[in-house]
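Field: COMPLEX_INPUT
Field: COMPONENT_COUNT = two
Field: RESIDUE_TOTAL = 615
Field: MODE = joint
Values follow.
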Amino acid sequence: MTAPGDGTGRGGGERRLHPVTPLRRAWAPLAVIVGWAVHDPDQAHRQLSRLTPAMLGLALAVLVPAAAVYGVVSWWYTRYAVTDAELRIRTGLLFRRTAHIRLERIQAVDVTRPLLGRLAGVAKLKLDVIGARKKDELAFLGEIEARALRAELLARAAGAAPGAAHRAGEAPARQLVRVPSGVLAASLLLLVPTWAKLAASLVVPVLLWLITHQPWPVLATAVPLVGGAVTSSVRRFAGACDWTLSESPDGLRIDRGLLDRTHETVPPGRVQTVRLVQPLLWRPLGWVRVELDVAGSSNSLLLPVAPRHIAEPVVARVLPGVTVPADTELLRPPRRARWCLPLWWRAQGIAVTDTVVAARSGLLHRRLALVPHAKVQSVRLTQGPWQRVWQVAALRLDTGANRTVTAHLRDAQEAAGLLRAQAVRSRTACRAARQDGRTARNAGPGTAWDGLGQR
Amino acid sequence: MGRTSEDQPVWTALPPGLLRMRRLLLVLWAALAAVAVGVPLGVLLAPAWAACALLPVAAAVWGWVLLGRNWRSWRYAERADDLLISRGVLWREETVVPYGRMQLVEVTSGPVERRFGLATVQLHTAAAATDATIPGLDPAEAERLRDRLTRLGQARSAGL
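Field: COMPLEX_OUTPUT
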């Protein structure tokens, strides 16, 4: 079974997942039936009432062991190994699948511990790989094993030698920010959509009552509406509860979650854009949410809520050498732009510093997007007919995380100048970053890296 | 890389083949539409109704002018370190792609395009939003461009 050429010399290469793993598959048929019953109670009741309890028991007695056998077999045939250059995951009995994941293409490794998994002492490992649409995952591993594997993968992705990576163990972390639960709860309550949903869930049933005067349709709409409004907020709270951001040589660590704990890593040097988002009601308090885009990664939240003076140093750690431009440093569009975008034209702004382009938008819900020059893939200037009448144009910066940062309503002359200058800046910044990355890689693991395996 | 990239771009327009192809297709479709509209109306209602066939013809005349303007608006420039593409009449767009950011250069040529001896060069960067396409090139020019861009891209490769 073991393929030749395992370079690790660590327990002979291939390893199996934690023996708890088959259990999660054994309950799949039950979960399907329960899910169906919850989703469509009438239909389920009608169908199930036709079956006698004996038949039901018999069906379950067949289905559950079958699922259990399937779980055990798939567990038995799932193995993974870390070799010199890649992480290899083999799965499947009939349809074999071997995923070869090149270590230097690993963007981030997340460890998640669902509630039941925490009780059983197991964790799930999710890998963000460039070019892969969805995350590859290893579920489940023992908690200690998961941490060790994550440390090893991250260190190896950062360029450490195989032996050294194993010895290095988990890189030490230093706590930067911890979001207090009270602040998090308050920040969620201060979101306009939260209240809009609640208001809708109160207004719609009342209107229905006035129209129909029948309790059933009112209940049938009120319960899902209120439930949806409450659960989405509660889920956000539970997901972001106890949000801790700490710094380690592998990058920034995010530890979060109330019931399901998740441990994410933001790799330094691979962040394409950072956004400081300020919903309307947060602005008097000076709170911001920090979002980011990493190529090939779906994690997008860095800080759910923090005062701006705390968030800015965090941004400086994700994008080294970047200072967030103050609101006064942003250039506003010319006054005539109000004919293109009434009222909202005032909120637009752009600032170009040595390292980063910052573009602001949104009158009420403010967004400040930062793109380092080195991450700009292409620059575009667009101008529609109405914009040409008023001599304004939009500057668009395309980044590798499939996000385009747009500075709207710039003076046409200024925009043309910015377009030319930005092309030069992004090219030179990129060259500098590449040289930095090279020296950093020689210096040791995890400081900054670039190039995505195009060596 | 001795030259600065502040050098003025030397713009290249598209060869006339693309315009010819598009206008020919336009005339073909317009003629078909005129027949499809005019003949049934003229036969079933009254001969005067056949004048409705003038509608597609008028649209085709309008399209003829539009195609010309659109074709004239397309141009590209190879500078020392980046490629410029400018296009659009009403909705103008100018794209700058540094050679170092190119991941892939694609030359495509569909059956109709091949019939007219045309090829399309498309540049891909790590950003999907990058819309750098040069249509209607002479195949030899497309290949030259592809080879040059690939060579420059390798020399200045930077990835993400």
